[in-house]
Amino acid sequence: xxxxLADTSSQQNGTSVYGDYIKSxxxxxxxxxxxxxxxxxxxxxxxxSAAFRKLIDSFVHxxxxxxxxxxxxxxxxxxxxxxxLAYEMGCSFVPVRKKGKxxxxxxxxxxxLEYGEATVxxxxxxxxxxxxxxxxxxxxxxxxxxxxxxKLIERTGGEVVETAAIIxxxxxxxxxxxxxxxHNVFAVCSFTESE
Length: 195
Fold this sequence. Notes:
Elements: H1 10-13, H2 19-25, E1 27-30, E2 38-41, H3 43-47, H4 49-63, E3 70-74, H5 77-89, E4 92-98, E5 106-113, E6 116-123, E7 132-140, H6 144-155, E8 159-168, H7 174-180, E9 185-190
Parallel strand pairs: 3-4, 3-7, 7-8, 8-9
Antiparallel strand pairs: 1-2, 4-6, 5-6
């Protein structure tokens, strides 16, 4: 029997028992790469073995009883979470890559950026109809990349169980856009612009 998930985010009701701890390990770099931007640097989180273990555990505990077939990780920081999560879950790992990075036959999805467009690709044989997939990335900002990845998965016949990230930046509207498109959202922690 497959369990179901409630749509949650750390901002709403504390989705991860480790959320506050994980958030405390993430470094904010002010005015980088441009003035007025608060860059959320996960490097200290990755360098701290205890924090990294708690991060991966946050995802494993959420999905371990949901019969997940694959973790679809978004290029490139999503790979950092996706590979160990797939290993721990005993399921497959599928990269969602930037255009032109995958060999073999691909399908692609183009989405809008603040200035211009970007494209992500997936191998056309990555999933089979009915596969249950969690999409992971490091951060949800405007939500464009996550939504493009979810569309690719659905085009293959896969089911997006949830979209997940370490960090949600809810003021940028991405998690709201993802929910409005019909997908559940999970974030281990969230930041406001003033934090």
